């Protein structure tokens, strides 16, 4: 299976091949097929009456958040008051529909980029499958995941900012 250059969301699950007939998922041009699931957040403003907290309107609580420029995952807090006290944290206030962050350096948000990180995997491999030539970023699970697949191969891929890059559990 050849994938054309471009940007794709991911969350793909490969069907198993066999030792005689493996299945290959290959980028048509290595390094030109991007798979990711990153939603960036902009528009944070200082929270009145606080020193370190910034907030913006939001519709829902992100499952995970990361400060992309530092590659640090933010810690979930229960309340906006907790965010003010804990460096590198965030929370969603359901009552006001606002997302709060406390930067990892406590020095404001203008020099940081924040993103919601999905808790999914990028590509789930199966027995006798190959993933070749992709650039993957932003999965809270693994870029490539498999539940003990036999004969699975990952090659020529660039994997950035994931919960784990490759996890083949017992393979």
Order of helices and strands: EEEEEEEEEEEHEEEEEEEEEE
Q: Mean pLDDT, nearest integer?
A: 93
How many strand segments?
21
Instruction: Give the strand order of the largest sheet, numbering strands 1, 2, ... along the chain.
Output: 7-8-13-12-11
Helix content: under 10%
Sum up the overall morphology in one term: elongated
Unreliable stretches: none
Oligomerization state: single chain
Amino-to-carboxy terminus distance: 23 Å
- Characterize the largest beta sheet: strand count, sense, and whether it forms a barrel: 5 strands, mixed
Number of continuous helical runs: 1
What portion of the residues fall into strands of 2 or more residues? 35-45%
Q: Could you tell me the radius of gyration in angstroms?
A: 19 Å
Q: Helix/strand/pairing class, anyone? A: mainly beta
Element layout with pairings:
Elements: E1 2-3, E2 6-8, E3 12-13, E4 23-27, E5 33-36, E6 38-41, E7 45-46, E8 54-57, E9 65-67, E10 72-73, E11 75-76, H1 80-85, E12 89-93, E13 98-102, E14 114-117, E15 123-124, E16 129-132, E17 134-137, E18 142-145, E19 153-155, E20 158-160, E21 164-167
Parallel strand pairs: 1-4, 2-5, 3-15, 4-16, 5-17, 11-12, 15-18, 16-19, 17-20, 18-21
Antiparallel strand pairs: 6-14, 7-8, 8-13, 9-10, 9-14, 12-13
Describe the protein's architecture and organization:
The structure is a single chain. By secondary structure, the chain is mainly beta. The chain contains 1 helix and 21 strands. The protein has a 5-stranded mixed β-sheet with strand order 7-8-13-12-11. A 4-stranded parallel β-sheet has the order 1-4-16-19, with no helix packed on it. Strands 2-5-17-20 form a 4-stranded parallel β-sheet, with no helix packed on it. The chain starts with a strand and ends with a strand.
């Amino acid at each position: 299976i050849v994938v054309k250059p471009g940007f794709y969301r991911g969350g793909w699950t490969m069907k198993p091949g066999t030792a005689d007939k493996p299945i290959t998922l290959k980028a048509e041009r290595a390094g030109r097929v991007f798979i990711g699931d990153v939603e960036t957040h902009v528009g944070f403003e200082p929270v009145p009456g606080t020193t370190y907290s910034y907030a913006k309107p939001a519709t829902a609580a992100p499952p995970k958040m990361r400060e992309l420029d530092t590659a640090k995952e933010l810690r979930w807090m229960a309340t906006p008051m907790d965010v003010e006290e804990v460096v590198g944290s965030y929370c969603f206030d359901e009552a006001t529909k606002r997302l709060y962050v406390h930067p990892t350096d406590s020095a404001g948000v203008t020099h940081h980029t924040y993103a919601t990180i999905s808790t999914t995997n990028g590509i789930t491999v199966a027995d006798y499958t190959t993933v070749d030539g992709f650039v993957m970023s932003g999965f809270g699970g693994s870029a490539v995941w498999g539940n003990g697949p036999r004969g699975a191969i990952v090659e020529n891929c660039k994997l950035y900012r994931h919960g784990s890059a490759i996890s083949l559990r017992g393979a």
